[in-house]
Amino acid sequence: MLWESGGLRGCKFYSTIYHIHTKMQHHSQRGGIVLNIAICDDETVFCHLLQDKVTQILTKRQEQFTLQTYTNTADLQQANQTFDIIFLDIQMPVQNGLEFAKALRLQGNESAIVFISAFSAYVFDVFSLHAEDFLCKPIDDGKLYAVLDRMIAKKKAEDKKCLFIQTNQWCKSIKLQSICYCEVINRIMYVHTTKEVFQYYGKITDLGKQLDARFYQCHRSYFVNLDFVVAYTNGCRITIDMLQNKNKKTEFL
Fold this sequence. Notes:
Structural class: alpha/beta
Radius of gyration: 20 Å
Strand content: 25-35%
Largest sheet: 5 strands, parallel
Order of helices and strands: EHEHEHEHEEHEEEEEHEEEH
Low-confidence stretches: 1-30, 241-246
Distance between the termini: 8 Å
Helix content: 25-40%
Mean pLDDT: 80
């Protein structure tokens, strides 16, 4: 990660977005939605069983997905991936699922967490962590299908969200999921997407009203789509206002 600063009052930090072009290509090549799923349970047999169940459901529905399995939270954390759904066991050695989920939320991670446990009493402990659902072992196929169906619907709804741009010469609707970042230079807006860059006269405040929670305003002149951020070294340089973003700087570090 690269951080630079100068002076005291009004100084700026700079972070860079690494592999942004690689992720641009990945998004532009795939069609439709892709559900990214993680399963974390210290019982290897159960991991494989749940993996098979999820694979069967999504394959039968002809959905695109990725699925990774982990037997401890440390490996899941080190994977450094963004998941749409995390099936998370509660009772695990070293760090249990509740502790791990709390750490994720403190980091700003908004992945949908589906807690899994053999003990139904834990259902009362997951509400404060904004859990997507709670499934008891053994996993009921109908309830698992309902969870996946709900997440697919949410993902498709996100896929339809658009930024609408209108000028005197043209108008354009751009899917939010295709936007990597937006910047304003001398009153000209630049919307960087996975395929091209759109530019027009506008205000960053007006643009921000059309964006959703996946976009972070790291500086008054930028909005960055966090779905495209995988590291902070080399690549594109984005200015971050230190005075307004002390907490975010700490999270990034």
